[in-house]
Write a structure and sequence with these properties.
The protein contains four helices and no strands. With 74 residues, it is mainly α. α1 crosses α4 and α2 packs antiparallel against α4. The protein is elongated and about 40 Å long. The relative contact order is 0.19.
Length: 74
């Protein structure tokens, strides 16, 4: 189960398992910039779009936190 979570985390961030820590951090920041509800709010999205952005943000953050802990990313 743990290996599946790690594999899913890499897929969520869109990086290969042999990616560098810097690549992982860059992917995380790019995805957070693209998906964070505060970043899309100026466009006046409807509630469903905001809810999806919040879900995606949580998913990306969870994936990054898992990899960060496993790989000791600072």
């Amino acid at each position: 189960a743990d290996a599946a979570k790690v594999r899913t985390a890499y897929e969520t961030l869109g990086v290969a398992q042999d990616a560098t820590n810097a690549d992982i951090k860059t992917a995380y920041r790019r995805l957070m910039n693209r998906n964070h509800p505060d970043k899309i709010a100026p466009g006046n999205p409807d509630a469903a779009v905001l809810a999806e952005a919040e879900r995606r943000t949580r998913e990306v953050r969870t994936a990054y936190d898992l990899l960060k802990a496993r790989r000791a990313i600072r």
